[in-house]
Amino acid sequence: MPYEFKLPDIGEGVAEGEVLKWFVKEGDPVKEDQPLVEVMTDKVNVQIPSPRTGTVGKLMAKEGDVVKVGTTLVLISLPGEQPSTAPSPQAPPQARTPEVTLQGPSVPEPGPASRALATPATRRLARELNVDIARIRGSGPQSRVTDDDVRAAAGRGGQQAVVLGKAAPAPPTSSAREEVVPLRGIRKTIAERMVRSKNTAAHVTHVDEVDMTELVVLREAFKGSAEKRGVKLTFLPFIVKALVPALKEYKFVNSTLDDAAGNIILKKYYNLGIAVDTEQGLVVVVVRDVDRKDIFELAGEIESLAEKARTGRLSLDEVHGATFTITNVGGIGGLFATPIINPPEAAILGVHAIKKRPVFRDGKVEVRDMMYISLSFDHRIFDGAYAARFTNKIIETIQDPKKLLTEVL
After folding, report:
1. Phi-psi category of 301—alpha, beta or left, where left has phi over 0 and alpha has psi -120 to 50?
2. What is the CA radius of gyration of the chain?
3. Superfamily for the 116-182 domain
4. If we measure between CA atoms, which residue out of 382, 327, 371 comes closest to residue 204?
5. Which residue, 67, 62, 31, 34, is CA-closest to 49?
6. Mean pLDDT of all residues in the chain?
7. Is the pTM of this model over 0.85?
8. Which band of pLDDT confidence, cut at 50, 70 and 90, is reported for residue 101?
């Protein structure tokens, strides 16, 4: 029997994806871990590798099809088997509803390609607003059509679509004093995950401050070496390394709670999620095994992942498997925030702006580079005293250059 490769559970609340590109055709030999297909979700574009070595039998979805998680994408004949193209019974991929469009005023300028690049959620929005998405010139990365592009086209008159077999749904209506913005795409995913987190975890936030003066000096000393390696050195890689000894000592921070089994699962690996602000919304990328990487490797990887997040080029492995998350809003402003835990993790650290403030040291006032940090944690897993000790360990490592250097190099 051929191996049925199904669209895997990509996580992040994603239930379906659009087949963007096949890297193989029927009859091609394929090796395990070879890129098989690129799928677009509301979160990321994912290149999915082949789980088996064999021969491609039948492609069960065409480029452009929207398929649900668990739907068979391709049949793969394993070594020693006769290639087979006979599919097992299954629900067909979600087909696009055929449309007949009647041209109205202010038709959006046709895009350069006959088929627009857009997420499934954006395509759904276009259908709801009766806009022909193929005629929109996208403003997003790689000319991707965004939700805002669709709304703008609808506001200019767009096209009035007549859907065969049923009446077109009525779009949300706006007025001169109010604008109706449908909750779609990555914004909807974030909303669902944050509500789930708040409704499940017992959130508590512990706030403290760090004297960053010595780290400011240390970063300046390492900037030249980083530039020679083609790396932009921010404060974030140093903070990531300062987390390592704290996570190793306070193991319950690097854990998840299995409610069903009644177990706390302590993670003995350190994959740090980094929240990245993108045009579509907040995306958490994952830097794996941070305890095994030096400061320059971390800086380069964080920079590369952030760029991929902003241009929609992240892979599946680059958004999954975090054991602890950092969100950095220091570059935007504010005093401090109370971040929401990224489920199913036990805690999240917010790092904020570095500002010069007068502080007491050895009985006298000095101007130092200070930064607030805020640790939101699940009180079901550990208590406030444990959170405070964990935070103290981070502060101790950052403020002592000798201790930080053992983690940096």
Report:
1. alpha
2. 25
3. E3-binding domain (4.10.320.10)
4. 382
5. 34
6. 83
7. no
8. very low
Percent of the chain scoring above 70 in pLDDT = 83
Rounded (5°) CA angle 135-141-144: 25
> In angstroms, rounded to a whole number, what is the distance separating the alpha carbons of residues 275 and 282?
6
Q: By three-state DSSP, how is residue 129 classified?
A: coil
Fill in the DSSP letter of residue 345.
B
Q: Which residues pair with 99 in a beta bridge?
A: 163
* Spatial separation of the C-alpha atoms in residues 309 and 275, rounded to whole Å: 10
Per-residue DSSP letter, 318? G
Q: What is the pLDDT of residues 344-401, one digit of tens each?
A: 999 999 999 999 999 998 899 999 999 999 999 999 999 999 999 999 999 999 999 7
- Give tens-digit pLDDT for 310-353: 887 887 788 889 999 999 987 787 888 999 999 999 999 999 99
Report the Cα–Cα distance between both ends of the chain, in Å, rounded: 52
Tokens of residue 169, six digits: 């749904």
Fold of 188-408: Chloramphenicol Acetyltransferase (3.30.559)
Structural fold of domain 3-112: OB fold (Dihydrolipoamide Acetyltransferase, E2P) (2.40.50)
Cα–Cα distance for residue pair 316/141, rounded to 1 Å: 19
Is 158 in contact with 132 (CB distance < 8 Å)? yes
Domain layout of the chain by residue ranges:
3-112, 116-182, 188-408
Q: Residues 283, 189: contact at Cβ < 8 Å?
A: no
In 165-228 the beta strands, taken as DSSP E runs, fall at 203-211
CB of 60 closer than 8 Å to CB of 86: no
78: tokens are 């394993």
Q: Report the residue count for the chain.
A: 409
What is the C-alpha to C-alpha distance for residues 297 and 7, in angstroms, rounded to an integer? 32
Active site residue 203: no
Q: In 96-184, which residue ranges form alpha helices assigned H by DSSP?
A: 120-128, 147-155
**What is the rounded average pLDDT of the residues 92-116?**
43
Sheet strands (E) in 253-316:
255-258, 263-266, 272-278, 281-287
